[in-house]
Amino acid sequence: MQYSYPCRIEPDGDGWVASFPDVPEALTGDSDYGETVELATDALVTALSRCYVERRRELPPPGARTPGEVLIRLPALVAGKLALYSTMRRNRITRVELARRLAVSVTTARRIVDPQHRSHIEQVERALRAVGRVLVVDDRAMPERAPQASRAARKLRPGQSPLVGPDHSRDGSRSRVGCGVVPELCA
Question: Least buried of 10, 16, 41, 109, by fewest C-beta within 10 Å?
């Protein structure tokens, strides 16, 4: 499965808000378009981890991208952990059984499956092999972007074209509105 989810990034007051049609629990925003795109990955990982993996729910499959949406690609390590979780859930393999197959503690097995825990990719690959799967990494050319402009020229406001993601908010500071989960949606 490809772990790339369509994301809507829309103007919201003086900033931007990112939401995911397939993962409604993930919501984030910032005054800066580029920062909102960056935060969207964090929000998606958090929602998938807290609302699906921790609650032992089936992961939502990514839908087709519609015009105006951007694809948020999960990091390879997170994608590997989600593939492991999905396989274990589908085949009813517990974390205790995974620990037995890997000859590690149950705590270690839990960490290997947890998308928010830093693990070595080799551990995840070994765990995937233990459940009959293999991680395949693919690379592609990045979409063409506009040449880097001055910091002032890279500022985006609602209604402007998001060709280059700026590094800072309008006043020059990093202003993270935050990312994460809408708790009441995490049922």
Answer: 10
